Amino acid sequence: MESVFKNNRIIYIDILRIISIIAVIVLHITADLLTRTNDFDTPSWWVSNVFNSISRFAVPVFFMISGAMILRIDVQSYRDFYIKRVLPLVISLVSWSLIYALYTQYFIVNSHMNVYQFLGDFAYKLLTDGNYIHLWFLYAIIAIYMTVPLISKLVKACSEKDLRYYLTLWFIISILYRLISDIVLKATSQYINIPILNIPFFTGFLGYFVLGYYMFTYGLPERPKRLFFNLGIISFFVTPVATYFASLYNGVLDEMFYGNYSITTFFMAIAMFIYFQEKDSSLREKVNHKIKKMIGSVSKASFSIYLIHLLIELLVSRRADTEGTLLQTSFNLAFNVVAIFAISYITVKLLNLNKFITKVLFGGRG
């Protein structure tokens, strides 16, 4: 790929990172109201539902970006790869788990645990992903990174046709089978289990990881590209409406179309990747050097912003009123997103002034 500007940055990947981290912030802000009320006909619920729905592409896109970037590398030494790539993530996981555990126990819960009780509880939750809601992403990405020395060799040995075969099977098992299972479950209250489709290598976020590499390396043929893009655009409109009717039917928020493996989330994620990949050439030509530097700076900080943003949200966000008007809820959401994103970015950049803090908190990134 030649879509690289100075410092070997790829502008459409950087923009996708920035949009995705903003979308993650939107997801976490809107989730609060969606889980506090079952009144699905209020303006505040609809604002939260719409913005939560259209932000669902974020996590799959993060995995696609990671796959696109890291599966290109040649791993010469397992030891070096683990020290350079995996260990920093583990250190970040432990550090932020500790920070969020301390804040939760002593500021939110007002716990009276002594040091030994806290450490025992912390260690257990660290092993079981129980310290804070968004840190699951680190467990998932560490697990996938542990496969990279092998998977990177496999994808390079595969032809484009081989990778399409893998991705087709992954789509059938992880996306389509899940959709059918959800529909059958809702219609019959019975969970459908087809043993022949229980193939671990073709499930989970690894598929998004390989999909990102495939799209970055080969791109999609023109007809499937148009089809997937159009289905993605349709999905942006379908997700909030389908969520409304499913929730109305169940009487509580139904997250069938919110999931990372829902068919609408899949198409939204792939549409986002297609759109910005197609715009890459024009972006490189039209965006001036200073803006590119700013985009690169924010993109580099996106992982760190992900780690810190919920702490900032706890400190500065304004809780939405379940009976708020359309204008009030929209303004509240916009204020929270801008404030959390800006404060998170500035805080990350200030912390990055110290190399030791950068390594301990952000794995040397930022």
Oligomeric grouping of the chains: single chain
Strand portion, in percent? under 5%
Low-confidence stretches: 1-6
- Write down the secondary-structure element order: HHHHHHHHHHHHHHHH
Helix count equals 16
Indicate the mean pLDDT: 94
Q: How is the main sheet built?
A: none
End-to-end Cα distance, whole Å, is 24 Å
The structural class is mainly alpha
Q: Kindly state the percentage of residues in helix.
A: over 70%
Shape: globular
Describe the structure.
The chain has helices at residues 11-34, 43-54, 58-70, 78-108, 115-128, 136-145, 148-157, 160-188, 206-217, 222-250, 263-278, 280-286, 289-300, 302-316, 326-351, 355-362. The protein is 73% helix and 0% strand. It is mostly helical and 366 residues long. It starts with 10 loop residues before the first helix and ends with a helix. Helix 8 packs across helix 9 (206-217). The chain is globular and about 55 Å long.
